Amino acid sequence: MSLDWDVRMQTLLLNFVLATFLFLSAIQDGNAGITSSFIRSEWPSVDIPLDNEVFAVSNGHNAPQQVHITQGDYDGKAVIISWVTPDEPGPSKVQYGKSDNKYQFSAEGTVTNYTFYQYKSGYIHHCLIEGLEYNTKYYYRIGSGDSSREFWFVTPPIVGRDVPYKFGIIGDLGQTYNSLSTLDHYMKSGAQTVLFVGDLSYADRYQYNDVGIRWDSWGRFLERSAAYQPWIWSAGNHEIEYMPHMGEVVPFKSYLHRYTTPYLASKSSSPLWYSIRRASAHIIVLSSYSPFVKYTPQYQWLKEELKRVDRDKTPWLIVLMHVPLYSSNEGHYMEGESMRAVFESSFIHYKVDAVFAGHVHAYERSYRFSNTDYNITSGNRYPIPDKAAPVYITVGDGGNQEGLASRFFEPQPEYSAFREASYGHSTLEIMNRTHAIYHWNRNDDGKKVPTDSFVLHNQYWGKNRRRRKLKKNFVSNVVGRLATDL
Ligand SMILES: *[C@@H]1O[C@H](CO)[C@@H](O)[C@H](O)[C@H]1NC(C)=O
Ligand SMILES: *[C@@H]1O[C@H](CO)[C@@H](O)[C@H](O)[C@H]1NC(C)=O
Ligand SMILES: *[C@@H]1O[C@H](CO)[C@@H](O)[C@H](O)[C@H]1NC(C)=O
Ligand SMILES: [Fe+2]
Q1: I want to staple 398 with a disulfide (CB 3.0 to 4.6 A). Which of 125, 172, 379, 414 is the partner?
Q2: Is any ligand 1 atom within 6 A of the Cβ of residue 113?
């Protein structure tokens, strides 16, 4: 055992030295991107067994479980509270108020259930509570009698220009020991709301009735965070669950029954794409797996929603989607190209600050680059530095059972600023209209280790009011170099 320990410590030390060396040499290279060589021993990529305490069912007959909340309206004065009762429907009522154990108000929700193969879901409740005060702690109670349960949440400050707020960004979470480590680390970050970039439970890796059972376990796993602060949902490929061999052909069936979004408040026609405003941020959620080309509902909606963005009220414009538009990982390579071709020029036109995605099980951050000059008659095919472009960040590193996507293309493309195949989560701490502090936190054994961080300058309020400048030299350099390589 002590031998193992020594070897492990030596490996860790070596990796640290290597990573430091790479980091320092990258600094000397000026803007060259960093491919971190940090390799750490991970928990095995296996799901936590169902009898583990992280999935524990609360005591009492028909006790509510899998409690989670999300924003319930456009501006943060409403919350949707969701939960599951296992034995019978029971009440869909939420009692709530501003002090513990004193519930002046109540709201009535709805209940639904579904089958998946022969699995029958519990009774899934969704209750919208509206007209809340901003910046206020509310306590709430659900369930009945002895088995009722109590939680709390804090509403966001009123939407406004210099309102500070701290978001967490998590993707591809699953339910392994690595997922638990990510969630534990996230919960220590002090962030107030999770922007989730798709692939929730990975229940679709199971067969037959186990699919539904693993959705339930994931709901219980997540409750420690999601019952107390909103998770803003977007859908990934693991939510599609098109499984004809089991007779299940309705896409997103489990996901849409269990996780609701306030899509009507942003005039969307589908819970899969929508937007919310929270503090000083306008958050747009897109669906990589719903039609998005010109003339489709998602395309039309986005076009209108981008016009509604008011940077005086919400200086920060953030887009979430599952499939990254810029990624130099071999995993899922170029799956985002079709959406990039459709939306990239709008993101630049509307000065999107950051685009967060998941899907690729690694971490990667881009410089401000664009590739909008490419079309099928133009020869300009290389992404070029573009101060008007968003930063693209992939955080598909939540820790699911598929493991890490550890192979990156070499050499690191010019657009890629930092990439590393480790598990972790990000935070975006908005300070005011011009500055936000961004961190990527790699999970480490028991400690929170910040590894990639920078100040995100607002694209609209930034002091040089960034104009779009295409560096002609850069393009000819790249073309020239490729020519000599061949
Ligand atoms: C939903 O629950 C009701 C009441 O228990 C039951 O009769 C019905 O079959 C269930 N529906 C589905 C789709 O499971
Ligand atoms: C496509 O590229 C060509 C050559 O750069 C350019 O002249 C043309 O305007 C572009 N077309 C579109 C629709 O962007
Ligand atoms: C925003 O915060 C940053 C960092 O604290 C500060 O340097 C900057 O002056 C602030 N900008 C405004 C407009 O308050
Ligand atoms: Fe995915």
Answers
A1: 172
A2: yes
Token digits of residue 96: 């709530």
Closest CA to 316 of 285, 361, 278: 278
- Got the DSSP string for 21-48? HHHHHHHHTTT--EE-----PPPPS-BP
Please compute the mean of the pLDDT values over residues 387-397 and round it to a whole number. 97
pLDDT of residue 34: 87
> What are the distances in angstroms from CA 423 to CA 126, 349, 357?
32, 33, 15
Residues 6+ positions from 193 with CB-CB distance below 8 Å: 71, 156, 165, 167, 168, 229, 230, 231, 232, 278
Q: Tokens at residue 481, please?
A: 């170099």
The pLDDT tens digits for 140-154 are: 999 999 999 999 999
229 and 81 Cβ atoms separated by less than 8 Å? no
> How far is it, in rounded angstroms, from Cα 71 to Cα 132?
11
Q: How far apart are CA 344 and CA 328, in angstroms?
A: 17
Indicate the pTM of the whole model. 0.89
Task: Report percent pLDDT > 90 for the chain.
Answer: 81
- Burial of 435 (C-beta count, 10 Å sphere; 0-12/13-18/19+): middle
Identify the residue whose C-alpha is closest to ligand 2 atom 14.
Answer: 375
DSSP character for 175? S
- The first and second tokens of residue 167, run together, are 């978001």
Q: Which of 311, 312, 429, 431 to mutate to test ligand 3, by most ligand atoms within 8 A of the CB atom?
A: 431
236 CA distance to ligand 4 middle (Å): 5
Ligand 1 centre and the CA of 113: distance in Å?
6
If residue 437 lies in a helix (H) or strand (E), which one and from where to where? strand 435-443
pLDDT tens string 219-270: 999 999 999 999 999 999 999 999 999 999 999 999 999 999 999 999 999 9
First to last CA, the chain: 51
**Average pLDDT across the chain, whole number:** 89
Query: Cβ distance 106 to 95 under 8 Å?
Result: yes
Is 332 among the residues known to form the active site? yes
